[in-house]
Amino acid sequence: MTRSSTVDAASVTLQPQKLIQGERSRAKIDVDQINVFLESSPEKRDQAQALMTELVSDPILKTDSSYYGRSKREEREDTARKIVRLALYMEHDIKTARKHFKGTDLVEELQRSEGEDLKNESDLVPLTNSDVAIFDRRLSLLHNMDPQVGTRLGVHLGLFGNCIKGNGTNEQIRYWMHERGATFVKGIYGCFGMTELGHGSNVAQLQTTATYNAESDTFTINTPNLPATKFWIGGAAHSATHCAVYARLIVDGRDYGVKTFVVPLRNPETHQLLANVVIGDIGQKMGRNGIDNGWIQFHNHVIPREYMLSRFTKVFPPKSKGGKATVKTQPQLDQISGYSALLSGRVNMVMDSFRFGSRFAIIAARYAVGRQQFGPRGHPETQLIDYPLHQYRVLPQITVPYLVSPVAFKLLDTYYSTLDELYRVSSPATFDKAGLVVVSKKLKNLFIDSASLKATNTWLVADLIDQLRQACGGQGYSSYNAFGKGYDDWVVQCTWEGDNNILSLSSAKSILKKFAASRRDGIFDTGLDAESFSYLEPGFIHDVLKTGQNAEITLEQLPDYSRVWAVALVRFLDHIARLVDSTKDLDSVAKLLVLVSKFHALHSMLKAYYDKLNSPQDSHVSDAASKDALWDVYKLFSLYFIDKHSGEFQQIKVFTPEEISHTVQPQLLNLLPKVRKAIIPLTDAFKMPDGMINAPIGYFDGDIYHNYFDEITKQNPTEVDGAGVPPYYGLLTDLLNRGWEFDHALGGSARANVLKKLGK
Amino acid sequence: MTRSSTVDAASVTLQPQKLIQGERSRAKIDVDQINVFLESSPEKRDQAQALMTELVSDPILKTDSSYYGRSKREEREDTARKIVRLALYMEHDIKTARKHFKGTDLVEELQRSEGEDLKNESDLVPLTNSDVAIFDRRLSLLHNMDPQVGTRLGVHLGLFGNCIKGNGTNEQIRYWMHERGATFVKGIYGCFGMTELGHGSNVAQLQTTATYNAESDTFTINTPNLPATKFWIGGAAHSATHCAVYARLIVDGRDYGVKTFVVPLRNPETHQLLANVVIGDIGQKMGRNGIDNGWIQFHNHVIPREYMLSRFTKVFPPKSKGGKATVKTQPQLDQISGYSALLSGRVNMVMDSFRFGSRFAIIAARYAVGRQQFGPRGHPETQLIDYPLHQYRVLPQITVPYLVSPVAFKLLDTYYSTLDELYRVSSPATFDKAGLVVVSKKLKNLFIDSASLKATNTWLVADLIDQLRQACGGQGYSSYNAFGKGYDDWVVQCTWEGDNNILSLSSAKSILKKFAASRRDGIFDTGLDAESFSYLEPGFIHDVLKTGQNAEITLEQLPDYSRVWAVALVRFLDHIARLVDSTKDLDSVAKLLVLVSKFHALHSMLKAYYDKLNSPQDSHVSDAASKDALWDVYKLFSLYFIDKHSGEFQQIKVFTPEEISHTVQPQLLNLLPKVRKAIIPLTDAFKMPDGMINAPIGYFDGDIYHNYFDEITKQNPTEVDGAGVPPYYGLLTDLLNRGWEFDHALGGSARANVLKKLGK
C-alpha cells in the first residue's frame, strides 16, 4: 500500500497527524521561550540548535533506523569511524572557541608550543575548559543519538585525560596530553585501568601491583591473579595505546596503596600489543556494544619510573647505588584528586539525563496524542492522552527532563569552576594553601551533589524509558522506536562510575553527618553549604523539628513545592538519626539512606528550577502563559514524587493520611488535565530534530503510522527466495510435509506384527 | 592465565566457591523437600527434573554463552531448527502420555481417525489436555532457556489452536487441528491475526473486513487501509501457512462485528505466498528476535464460507438464487470464547514468572554470596550478602518466585478444568444450558484472576530482573550473565496478550463491582467466589469497615500476613467507592484501580502459598527447619510489599505511621538476616541445571571468576590481525598518526602570508 492510496481523508479515526497539528495550532504557550529556559540561555540555545543540526546532517555521525539491530562487530567499526570524524570537528571547535582560524595553525602550534620547542613559561597557552567547551557539548549532544560514541571517546578524553590532569605534574600533563597529542586524539589513545574483575567500588583494594626496581629505576606492573585482571576497560579491547593504570605502589616491600601510572599497551603505529601485555575482548554487553571494553593482564611489564603520575605522590630513586628509594606523598589530596577523574562522568550523566529523558518524553507524548483507542460508540476513538490513567503514566515522566535541566547546567558550571580552582591552587606557580582548604570543601560538596544527582537521575530516566515504552504499547517494543536500545544503552549509567546504591549511601552518610553537626553544634557554612544544603541551616532544622506539625506546608504557595522536600529531609534525617542512636548500626538504615540521597536530589532539582524560573533574568520567560505552564510542570513533579513517597511522608508526619487523600492526590489529579493541554508544545519545546529522535512514532509531523510503516519496510526488504520466504524455509516445509518420524525411523519395527516375532 | 596458575589457595579473599560451598555445608534445611513444594508434587517434581535434563542435554535445544549476541537472522533460523526438533519430542510426549508405544503408530492413527476414514463417532479418541500435558510442560520449561522458541511455536499451538478450539465447530476443530495436522505441527502452521497497526487492545474496533459474497458463497478478506494492516503477527513473516484472522463480518452490508476466519497465506509445500496476500517482516525488536513477527495485508483475498469459525456465529447461504443470507449468532458466548484464546497465554505467563524469576534469583544469590567487597581492614572482604542493603535488595526478590509458584500451579489447573468444562457443555452431543451459565461465571472469575496475576507477576519479574542485574554490578551488564537478554525478552510480557494496565483496570473494575454487590446486596457466591475473592465475603467487609481500626492485624500470627492484604483490599475498595460516588468518574480513580489489581494478586499469592504450606498433605514439607524457612519467605514477601505500599496502608489506615515505624519496618529488617542464612539452599532448591541458568556468575559450583572468564575468552577468541588488533584497526592507526587535517586540507591557504596576498 502506498501512502496516498491508504489514507481515507474523511475518516474520523486514525489521523494522528491531524490531532498533533491541531494541538500545536491551539497551543497558547511560547515554545521558543521555553526552549531557552530548558537550554539555560539564548547563547547556549543557539549553540545547542546549531550543534544538533550539524550532528543530524553529518553523513558519518547521523543515525537512522538502520542504526538498530547492528552486530557488535558493525557497531565497533561504526563507532571508530565516528570517532575519526569527531577528531575533525574537534580541531574546528577548538579554533572556533579560540576565535583563531588565520595565520599559524592553532592546534599544531598548541601541540608544539608545549614540547621541546618551549622557550619560556609565558609562551604557554594551554587549553582550558572553555577551549574545549564546544566540543564537549557536541559530544554531550551526540550521546542522545549514539551514546556509545561519546563514551568510547569519553573514556580517552574524560577518564584517561582527567586521570592525568588530576594526578600528573604540570609537566606530565603537558607531555602526555599536549605534546604527545592525547588532548587532540593524536599519538595516544588512552584507556582507564581502574576496575578489576574482583574489585569495582572498592578501589583501595585493587590488586594490580607497580613494584619499584631501584637498580633500573623502573616499575614492574603485574597482575598477580585472575581477579586482579583489569576488567571492563573501555577502549582496551581494540583502541587504546596507553592505559592509566591504578596499581598498588610497592617500594622496598612497602605497600603505599593505589596510585596511578601511564602504561603503554600497543604500538600506536602498528597497533600490535607490546610484550608482557595480554588483552582480550569482554565481548557482548546488554548495550553500548560499540565500546570495546576489554580485559588486561600485565606480566612483568616494565615502565620507566617517570610514568608514574606524581602530582601528589612521588618516588625518588636512591641517591646512591644500593641506597633506598624515598616516597613523598600527600595522601589526602591524592585521594581527592584520584577520585576526581570520575567526577566529570557523574556530572555529565546528569546532563545526559536531561537530554536522554527528553528524547523519550517527546516520543511518548506524540504517540499518546496521535494514538486513539476505545471510546464512546459513534465517536472518533479517544486519544490515549485523554485517559486519566495515561496522563498519570506519561505526564509526570515528561516533567522529569524539565526538572533535571536547571540543576544539570548548574552542576556542570560548578564542576568546571571548582576543577579550574583546584588546578590553580595546587599548581607550583600559583600554590595557595588556604585556597586548597576551601576547594577541598567545595570538591566534597560536589561529590555529595554529583553522587546524589547522578544516582537519582540515572534511575529516574531508566524508569522513564521503561514506563514510556510501556505507554507506547507494542510499538514501544519495536527496535525502530528507540526504547529498547535506549534502555539497554542507558541502564549501565546506574552501575558505572559509581554504582548508584554505593553513591547514594556515600552521599547520604555525608548529609547525615552534616545534619548532626548542624543540629548539635550549629555548624553550617553559609558560604559553601547554603546552596545545596540549605535545609540543614540550624534555624530551619530547629523550626521543623520543634513544631511537630507539618511545618505549615499547605501546598498553596509555589515555594512550598520545594520546601516540602526540605521539611521531609529534616524529618527523615531526624528519624534516621534516632534509629542509629538506638541501634548504633549505620548499615541497618542503609535502605533509608538511599532515600535520603534521592530526596536530596529531588529537593536540589526543585530548588534549582524554582530559583531559575522565579528569576525573570535567568528564566528568559516573559510570556505569562508559558510561565504558568512551567509552574504547573514544577508542581506536578513535586506532587508526583510526594505521592510516590507518600509512605515516607506520612510516616515522618509531613502529611497526615487525610492530607494525602484530600490535598496531595486531588491536586495531582487536577493538575494532570491542565498539563495535558500543553503536552505537545511542552515536548516540542525540547526542539529535538527527528534525526536525533530516530523513532518514527515520535516524529514532528505526527504521521505515526506511515512513518513507522515506511521504516519497517525500508529495513526489511522483500526476501530473495520470494516474498515472505526466508532463506531457511526448507526447514519449515520439511517440518510441515514430514512423515511420522518415529514410525519411519524405526522402519516399522514397533508394529504389532514385528514385535510379536521379536517377542517370541 | 590458566585456572590453576592463577589461584592463590592461601588467599583469604576472592574464593567464591569456598564461600558458596560453605553455606551449603552449613545449611539446615531440606532442599529436596522444598523443591517438591515449589514443583507442586513429587510427581511433577520428577517430571520437571527429567524434562530439564533432557532440554539442557539436547544438542539442538541446549543453550550456552554463544546464545548471546546472535543476529536476528541467526536467531530466526536457530528458532526454526528448535521447533523442528520439538516436533519430534511432541510425538514422543503424546505417546508417553497415552502410554502407547506399540502396535499402530498412535499419532498417525490419531490424525487419520478423524479424517475421511472416520467410521463412527465412537472411534474418535481426540487429544485431550492431559495428552499434551507433558509437551506443554516441556515448552514451558524451555521458555526459561530460550523464550522465543516457546512463543514462536506457542502462537501456532496456543493462539491459533485455541482460536480454532474456542470458535470452531467440533468438525472444524477436528479438520484443522487433527486431520490437517495442526495439532502435530504438520500440514499447517498457524498464526494469530488479531492485532492491527491501529488497534491492539480495542479488538471490537478492528478494521479488517470479511465480506460475504452470496453468488460464490465465499468471503472476501480485505485490509481497507494502512492502520488495518495485521501487525505484530508472530509467525507471519516467515513461518505461517494459515492465519486465524479477526475480521468484521459483513453480510448484506450489515456489520456483525469481529469474528474469526481460517485464512490460507502460503502454499505449505513451496512456502510461497498466495495471491492477494501481502506479508512483510516487522523486523528488529527489543527482544525475542527469533520470533518472525510480521505484518499482513489482504487485497480481495477470497476464502470459502466454510472457513469461518462457526461455533457461535454462523452464516447460512441464501436458500435460493438472489435470496438473502442469514446469520445466526450467540453474541455473549461468542465474546467469551473469542477472548479465551488469550487466556492460555496469560495463565502460562504466571508460570513463566515463577520459572524466569527463579533463574535470576539463583544467579544473584550466588553472586551475592561469592562476591566480596569492602570490609574491615585486615579481614577478608565482606560478602555482598552480609550488607543489610544488599539483603534488602536481593532477598525479597528471591521470595517472589516462591510466592508465585503455588498460585501459578493452581491457576493452570483451574484453567484446564474450566476449559474442559466449557468444551463439554457447549458441544452439541453434551450441551448443557445450566452448565453453560456456571462455566461462564467461572470463566469470568478466571479472567479476573488471570488478568490480575498476569499483570502483577510479569511486572514483578521485570522489576526482579532489573533489580538483581543491578545487584550484580558490572557483571550483570555482561550479556553472558543472562540479565540483558533476559530483560529484553521478558518485558514484552507486560504488553502482549493484554497490556498490563488495561488488564489491571479491567480486573479491578470487576472486583469493584463485586465489592459493591457484596456490600450493598450481600451478593456473594460461596461456591465460586470464596476461593479468589474471599475478602469480599459480606460479613468480612462489614467487620473491616465497621471497626474503623486496623481490624486487629498485629502481624503476630501467620495468617495475618495474608489477611492484612484482605483488610487492605476492603479498605481500599471502600476508599475508591467513595471517590467514585463523589466524582461519578470511574476513570479518575484508574491509578488506584491498577493498585487494586496488584493487591488482589498479592493477596491471592499469599493465600495460595499459605494454604499450601499450611497443609501437610499439599506442602510435602515435613522437615521443621524447612517449614520455618518457608514461613520466613512468606512473611518477608508480605512485609516487603506492605512497606513498598506503606503509603496506601497508612492512607487507608490499615497501619498507623507508628505501626509502620515500630512493627512493619523492624520486622522486615529482622527477617532479612534470618532469610539470608538460607539464601543458598533456598535458591539451590529451584534445582535448576547450569545449562538452563546459562550465566557463569550463577553456576552451581560457585567458581564465579573462573567460570565467567572462561566464557568470555571462549566467545571472544584472539583476533586474526593480531591479539587485540581489530579488523578495522587502520581507522585507528590513521587517526593517531594523522597530520593536522585542516592545515593539510587547506594546503596552507589559511596561513598569514597567503591571506595577506589574498587580502590585497
CATH topology grouping of the domain at 500-697 in chain A: Butyryl-CoA Dehydrogenase, subunit A, domain 3
Which word captures the global form of chain A? Answer: globular
Strand content of chain A: 5-15%
Q: CATH homologous superfamily of the domain at 500-697 in chain A, by name?
A: Butyryl-CoA Dehydrogenase, subunit A, domain 3
Largest sheet: number of strands, sense, barrel closure of chain A: 6 strands, mixed
Number of contiguous helices of chain A: 27
Binding site for FAD (chains A, B): 195, 234
Protein name (chains A, B): Acyl-coenzyme A oxidase
Domain Acyl-CoA oxidase/dehydrogenase middle (chains A, B): 191-300
InterPro entries (chains A, B): ACOX_C_alpha1, Acyl-CoA_ox_N, Acyl-CoA_Oxase/DH_mid-dom, Acyl-CoA_Oxase/DH_mid-dom_sf, Acyl-CoA_oxidase, Acyl-CoA_oxidase_C, AcylCo_DH-like_C, AcylCoA_DH/ox_N_sf
How would you portray this structure in words?
In chain A, 55% of the residues lie in helices and 8% in strands. The first copy, chain A, has 760 residues and is α+β, with helices and mostly antiparallel strands. In chain A, strands 1, 2, 3, 5, 6 and 9 form a six-stranded mixed β-sheet that branches. In chain A, strands 4-8-7 form a three-stranded antiparallel β-sheet, with no helix packed on it. In chain A, a hairpin with a 2-residue loop joins strand 5 (242-251) and strand 6.
